[in-house]
Amino acid sequence: MSITLDILFLKLRAYLELMKLRLAWLVAFSGAFGYSLGIDKVEWLPLTIFLFAAFCITGAANIINQVIEIDLDKLMKRTQNRPLPSGRVSVQEAVWLAIALFVVSTIVFFVEFNLRACALAVLSTILYGFVYTPLKKVGPIAVFVGAIPGAFPPMIGWVAATNQFGLEPGILFAIQFIWQFPHFWAIAWVLDEDYKKAGFRLLPSKGGKDLSTAIQIMIYTLFLLPVGWLPYELGMTGINSALVAMLFGVLFLAQTFHLMRKCSDKTALQLMFGSFIYLPIVQIAYLLDKI
């Protein structure tokens, strides 16, 4: 009996790893941020249901990505021990899990929220799984395409809460869309050698890890400063969160200048961690300011 439980535990753990548990929860949180910003009063049951649906749809997209890239993941040190390349989960298992998660999440989005949010969630999955994933071998255009579904979560949350498109969800989309360029390029800089093994070309400069790439990272980060003020200008949040967004935007921008000076893996890694800090802190500040 204990052996059976151990096997079940290992399989469950492999499934959660296949879904990219931490990333899926971060994406779900980003969607919950948009949902909470769009409603007048937070009710925990609908918010929990939204988090569940967002987690499932993200997990499905992550699995599709890994099924398509299984042979490429075997080539990279960072990914060769994932459940599919290591054989802990079969491709058939992964496909059925992705289908189950996708179906459950779309039903929840449609029944508990609205058709618009459901359609956005489906479009996000298609763009990430079947457009962005194969483009990673084409060139930096993949980062632009991938930033579109990557910026959908807060917009999906807002639309799920309000059943309305408009300037407000567009601003939430814009903040996360712009943020992804320094975020993805910092990751691509750190992992450039590993990515090359799989034929991925994601850095914007043909020279790769050079000043040209660092300048482009700086330019996109610079755009976060004015965009971060827009939720306040639209009356979505207060002045305090706008000041927090400005402060952390300036700190984030300072890291890009450091990268421009050094052009090293160490400074790119610092920028990558800076990007991980910027987004959740700014989003939490917007929420707290609304409350």
How would you portray this structure in words?
By secondary structure, the chain is an all-alpha fold. The protein has 15 helices and no strands. The protein has helices at residues 2-18, 21-38, 44-68, 70-73, 83-86, 91-113, 115-135, 141-150, 152-162, 167-190, 192-197, 211-227, 230-233, 239-262, 265-290. Helix 2 crosses helix 3. The chain is globular.
Question: What's the SSE blueprint?
Answer:
Blueprint lengths: L1 H17 L2 H18 L5 H25 L1 H4 L9 H4 L4 H23 L1 H21 L5 H10 L1 H11 L4 H24 L1 H6 L13 H17 L2 H4 L5 H24 L2 H26 L1
Order of helices and strands: HHHHHHHHHHHHHHH
| Residue fraction in strands | under 5%
Distance between the termini: 50 Å
Number of helices: 15
Rg of Cα set: 19 Å
Largest sheet data:
none
User: How many strand units?
Assistant: 0
Task: Please tag this protein with its features.
291 residues; 0% strand; mainly alpha; 15 helices
Short description:
The chain has 291 residues and is mostly helical. The chain has helices at residues 2-18, 21-38, 44-68, 70-73, 83-86, 91-113, 115-135, 141-150, 152-162, 167-190, 192-197, 211-227, 230-233, 239-262, 265-290. The N and C termini lie far apart (50 Å).
